[in-house]
Amino acid sequence: MPEFQRLEFSRLSPDEQARRLEEFYARLRQRRSVRHFSDEPVPLHLIETAVRCAATAPSGANQQPWTFVVVGDAAVKRRIRLAAEAEERESYARRMTEEWLEALRPLGTDWHKPFLETAPYLIVVFRQDYGVEGERKIKHYYVQESVGIAAGFLIAALHLAGLATLTHTPSPMGFLGEILERPKNERACLLIPVGYPAEDAVVPSIGKKQLSEVLIERL
To answer: How far apart are CA 59 and CA 41, in angstroms?
Structure first.
């Protein structure tokens, strides 16, 4: 029989609910994807606490099918940059369609990824496609959805800690598992440079959709 415990839940007043949500929104709306990082050191405990936040995310069957690898070693970051740039160079030259390239033009991106070395930390998010218990494989459920939610928690936590991030997805990403020596059941799905923005950092002049464009109410 499953075991249960009493839910710990604090009921808030309507005013406090609204205040907290507005404050959270005000901070999140300032989040931007950053590609110009300072090499200024970041306290490791901030990264660790942000990962702790990510690990509280809900997951299918509570299997928590994620691994977060934090990279601060300069030599390893160098290897990751070179491998990522090799894949990105091929993508920009041959793999991406003209439509895809056109969609990326407002962001001003190309295959050069210096931020992979400049940022003090890289966090590589791995999805565990299945669990391993001795010689036995354990099926995992809703892996992609679960890891996506955890990654969202992680990005929000890092932003609230006053750190800049970028969601980088070089494709294919198999080189990350090889460089970081991860087991076969883990697959890299997101590479997040983390640090402080450079003093002269710039971001594209783009915006988010209005609430009316993303919210449909059937009340």
So the answer is: 32
